[in-house]
Amino acid sequence: MIRNLLSLTAIMLTGFADPQEPPSESRSAATPDRISYTATGNGWTGGRTEWWIDHSGRGMYRTTVRHQAGGEFNAGPAGFARIRAILQPLEEVRELPCDGAVTDQGMGTLSWRRSHGETSLRFDFGCNFRQPDAARAQLGQASELVQKWALAR
Question: For the whole model, what pTM was predicted?
Answer without folding.
Answer: 0.74
